[in-house]
DNA sequence: TCATTTTCATTTGTATGCAAATGAGTATCG
DNA sequence: CGATACTCATTTGCATACAAATGAAAATGA
């Protein structure tokens, strides 16, 4: 008996946790995109709403707060700056830092899309009962 | 009272389901990358192991089986062909189809990395008790 | 103080991930 | 049979996502 072969036979990639997580993310993103109104992506929404929550901050710090790599947050911020939602300025106290701040337009786009974002969360969890939702959130948080 | 403002104040993007799913996926991918031995990504692994499971098939079909867009699966397959893990041939019965098949090297790379892939699943679920793992899988499957 | 380390932002390169459009081949059905 | 619809693979464009390297600025500690 070749144990390697028997393991291979048992293994099904589409029953692994990674596969499910990837699919769940795909579904959530699709729901979000279908509800959001200003062609905002989930990461752009995360960056904007987090920036609103914590106030003016540096680019890398905003990235850490939103679980984005320095390269990723830079791309997101660049696009939000280009669209006029975020303003950048040099930090007078630290020559390295780029201070990010929401523009009035940035605040407005958050207000305009908050309901859709909340609905996206609801719709994503719709297949679960209220009790299951609590449990799911808790378990998901544990493996993060 | 401005209800829009109060909603905004309550909303925290890093407590939303989408944020957790994205982070969970990041963590799993990092674990997988740390264990896998041949610079294979999670999607490349999914494509290879699924191709082994279902046998020779078309590119789009493999994409559907692995939850990948036609563009995404094309990129993955192209890279696996380039590395010699997948072989392509025209389907004599259907002029549109490209029949994909694992090469000997492709079979070998699966055998060499199966243990790592299994370990990646285990490590990802490590923070949960056995009971929680069952529950988590079930809930994750429901929202997929 | 001055060398070491750390942090910040940027750039390059590679790899998903999806929308939209295209062209070629196949299936369906009136 | 022939028009229509569908499927397959491809291409383009845009948006994450991360590794690795770089240069500038700040913090640290001997």
Automatic annotation (TrEMBL), chains A, B:
It comes from the Bacteria. Residues 1-144 form the HTH marR-type domain. InterPro entries: HTH_MarR-typ (IPR000835), MarR/SlyA-like (IPR039422), Tscrpt_reg_MarR-type_CS (IPR023187), WH-like_DNA-bd_sf (IPR036388), WH_DNA-bd_sf (IPR036390). PROSITE patterns: HTH_MARR_1, HTH_MARR_2. Keywords: DNA-binding, Transcription, Transcription regulation. GO terms for molecular function: DNA binding; DNA-binding transcription factor activity. Gene3D superfamilies: Winged helix-like DNA-binding domain superfamily/Winged helix DNA-binding domain. GO terms for biological process: response to stress. This is MarR family transcriptional regulator. It comes from Neorhizobium alkalisoli.
